[in-house]
Amino acid sequence: MMLLSLLANPAVRPGLFTARRAKPAARQSRWLRMAEGISLWLAVLLMLFVHPLYAEARQMDMEQPGQLYLMNDQSARQQPAVILDSEFQVHVSGLLAQTRLTRTFRNASDQWQEGIFVFPLPDKATVYGLRMTIGEREIVGHIEPKAKARQTYERARQAGQHAATLEQHRPNLFTSRVANIPPGESVQVEIRYQQPVAYKHGEFELRLPTTLTPRYMPGDPLAETQGQWQSGWALATTEVADAHEISPFTVRPQDVDGGSHRARIGIEIESGLALADVSSPSHRLHTELDGARATVRPEQEKVLMDRDVIVRWRPVAGSEPKAAVFHQTWRGEDYLMAMVLPPETVGPVLRRELVFVIDTSGSMAGDAIAQARSALLKGLESLRPGDSFNVIQFNSQAHALFAQPVPAEGHYLARARRYVQDLRANGGTEMAGALSLALGMDSGPGGERVRQVVFITDGAVGNESALFNQIRSGLTDRRLFTVGIGSAPNMHFLREAARWGRGEFTAIHSGAEVDRALNRLFAAMEAPVLTNLDVRWPDQGQPLEPVPARPGDLFRGTPLIQVIRGLPAAGQLQVSGQLPGGRHWSTSLDLAQAAPASGLNRQWARGRIDELTDAARLQGQTPDEQQITELSVRHGVISPFTSFVVVEQRRARPETESAGSQSIPTLLPAGSQPGMLRYPQTATFAPLFTALGLLGLMFSLAIAMLNRRPSL
């Protein structure tokens, strides 16, 4: 402070000294000379510090351009990250797709390594197989209770054995661990799963997630993470206890090895219907069509794992399915899957109260917020005279444009359009507050209306279960419709939020998808096509367990799909319901005409596990772990309480060798802003730039003092 005061004093300026001020000037001169000396010595010391930083940064840049290096807490450079390669081989038969996903973990370092990879799968995926391949040796995994599987894997890792495990955190989020990968060698892990093929509005769709948007973790941290390494960027919180397990680091493609995080994809489609075309909004495709069969792959040999891969196919006009039934016998038990499409019908036009909720949190920055604004503006265009509306935007806080819904009239709509066009993305994703505001909002004036909420978001949250409970308890007479945004949205949240909200969901992959997706959604929102559904399977004198047990209302273009166990392919399935205006509708299916299928037992088991989990949630209880575990083990499908584990019995790593552990990052979803990057500590030029900045400040200070030095 004294030095700053002296420099600011005009008495030190050259030419202004007098004999009367000689003593103060002399003292001031001594202070300046001392400050100059200290600054110059600090500059020299800083130069000595900067040189090795510069040399290390240059050496690292020359050794492996773009290679990701992990740092320990002493900033010591560690070995390069494990390189990841992926291959998806998909076979579609009717309404089910079987996928063989092969991950290759290549250890590019000179130390034995453990690779840890957190990754997404389709939100309705049923995982039923795990295999590990080392050289020519293939070892098949098995299911164990989650705690036991962790112990089995950890013992094998410490004993130097090759081992792998697969664990579920959410229905669409998993962790794979691979122990004792030899230096310079590879270990392959094959995951087998199946998923239902989506069918809406006469078109089939298959979605393969390859990365995920970093999720917001609300709540207060529970404790500091112990240990030298962390597997995720987030700490466990009071609302997301497993936040540290579902928060993989997110990096740019240039931050990893040039051959890492790429995927080969091959899809074989046997639809049973003559196909008109195959398309994709996410990738350019090479397609070979042959009647009801199609072979599909991206034009690129390997695609970057920075967005969902979406493939759609459409039957020839006039051959769209109205109903279908499939049959499988597994271990002496019969399984049936039925699909019934409701009739295309238009009921009376209803007056509606629409509350639009738009996510403006930081994860929506970039292409996502532009798509979200377009979706909301499209929603405003869908309003008709007699409707009312409101707009809520949320990030760290929620804010409503109007105190209550207002009439869909000119000046209100104009104000809403200006408001939406000015929205920008930043802050956290406090979704609970936005739901409370939307579901608790009083109706506006003008009489009774159908109350609907349109929720536009990427779903990048970690507290999904708490939000589903909030929707269920606060919904009352409303319906909740979700609109997914971005190249890698959380489809589990979007689908389940709409299900608990008795509504529908859609996803927008790019700006070009906005009109197509929303026209269909808003048409479905006009009114359910079929209510009070009654599904009656043939009476066999025994209790049946259909999944889902109680189907909800059906919307335009969306079929009823139900799987049942213990019923042979004989007799008639009767489906009935109420059309708009109160008219009765019914149809029947001849089960003897069922087509052969595989995987129905797994689909039933996955659905039954979901039903048990839902029932416990509705009653505020913990799910029946024993019953779910028994179902999981019997049918060989993973569950929240079980994991796959595979171990090679012989020791691979010598006792004299130690092993490291590396968390493999995911790629930043395409279209996201750099603010969504979640880096581990990396050896970059950051320390060098910091040091250079300090050096520049020192020289600037020294030059300033020299310029202000008085001439005596």
Structure description:
This protein has 712 residues and is an alpha+beta fold. 26% of the residues lie in helices and 33% in strands. It has twelve helices and 37 strands. Helix 2 runs antiparallel to helix 12, helix 4 (367-381) packs antiparallel against helix 5 (410-421) and helix 10 (600-618) runs antiparallel to helix 11 (625-635). The protein is globular. The protein starts with a helix and ends with a helix.
Q: Could you estimate the helical fraction of the residues in percent?
A: 25-40%
Regions with little confidence, pLDDT below 50 for 5+ residues:
1-22, 48-66, 70-77, 225-229, 682-689
Overall pLDDT level: 87
Strand content: 25-35%
Number of E strands = 37
First CA to last CA: what distance? 24 Å
Describe this structure in a few short sentences.
The chain has 712 residues and is of the alpha+beta class. It has 12 helices and 37 strands.
Keywords:
33% strand, 37 strands, 712 residues, 26% helix, alpha+beta, 7-stranded mixed sheet, globular, disordered N terminus, membrane
How would the blueprint of this fold be written?
Elements: H1 2-8, H2 22-63, E1 69-71, E2 77-80, E3 83-93, E4 96-106, E5 112-120, E6 126-134, E7 137-140, E8 142-145, H3 146-158, E9 161-170, E10 173-181, E11 186-196, E12 198-200, E13 203-208, E14 250-251, E15 262-270, E16 275-279, E17 285-290, E18 293-298, E19 303-304, E20 309-315, E21 323-330, E22 333-340, E23 352-359, H4 367-381, E24 388-394, E25 398-400, E26 406-407, H5 410-421, H6 431-439, E27 450-457, H7 464-474, E28 479-485, H8 491-500, E29 505-508, H9 514-525, E30 531-536, E31 560-565, E32 572-578, E33 584-590, E34 595-596, H10 600-618, H11 625-635, E35 642-651, E36 659-664, E37 666-667, H12 686-708
Parallel strand pairs: 3-15, 5-36, 14-37, 21-34, 23-24, 23-27, 27-28, 28-29
Antiparallel strand pairs: 1-2, 3-4, 4-11, 5-10, 6-7, 6-11, 8-35, 9-10, 9-35, 12-13, 13-20, 15-18, 15-19, 16-20, 17-18, 21-22, 22-31, 24-25, 24-26, 30-32, 32-33
Helix pairs in contact: 2-12, 4-5, 4-9, 6-7, 7-8, 10-11
